[in-house]
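Thought: the user wants the 3D structure for the chain below. I'll pass the sequence to the structure tool as-is, report back what it returns, then summarize two notable features.
Action: structure_tool
Action Input:
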Amino acid sequence: MKLGKKIYSKVVYISIVALSIFCLVGTNVCAQTNYNSVFENANLQYSKGNYEKAIELYESILKNNIEAGALYFNLGNAYYKTNRIGLAVLNYEKAKKLLPDDEDIETNLRLSNLKTEDKIDGSPNLFIVDWINSVTGLMSEKSWSVICILIVCISLLFFIFYFLSVNLLAKKTFFYTALCSAIIAISFFFFAQHKYSQIKNSNEAIIISPVTTINSSPAEKSTKLFILHEGAKFTITDEDNEWVEIKLANGNVGWAPKKDIQKI
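Observation:
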């Protein structure tokens, strides 16, 4: 009798857990379906030239913590059509983070940057830094990681052949092939890690206000250093209440109001 009760209790428990999982999955599926519907409606509004409505719908999806490269790209297009270049650049940059290999995003970002007023030339980097950034930018972090794992598997396979082989020439061939594969895998791991760091640890931001005055310190009455216009890109180096310290690519440093900027 007691055994029967225990079995019954377990069945009830498993049923509740299964039902909870089913409800959770069902809720997520319904929510995703709803977001897709809103996204399609936003695209429709964009195609009709109703850019403000499209922006409203795209932004409503983002407010629910839904992120996608296509979403940021389309939102950037809508802001570009309404001549809000700062917000266009911002969303193209966000799209580029998620879809680094997309040529359309790169093209539209370049066109948007041509319309910005501030042409900031960066300080020259060391050759090795430029080379690493150039190579890292060839693929996404996921692509670097997948290839790295495949090469590691190949390296392990050759090491196995090395230990199993009895022929001296074959053992040398398998050993050096495995060693070279391991070195290549380490290189790919470095590129994947560098790409991940660029995406996750970036403090880059964009000016979204038409005009922003950059001050010498985080205070309204401090010395005015220079002005920036919407679309200008920089790195945040410090924060102080409602101010952020920024550093431009040319090395210029100053403080900007938080309300005038948005992180990528």
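Final Answer: Structure generated. The helical segments are 2-47, 51-62, 69-81, 85-98, 103-114, 127-136, 141-164, 168-200. The beta strands are 204-207, 211-215, 224-229, 233-240, 243-247, 253-257, 261-263.
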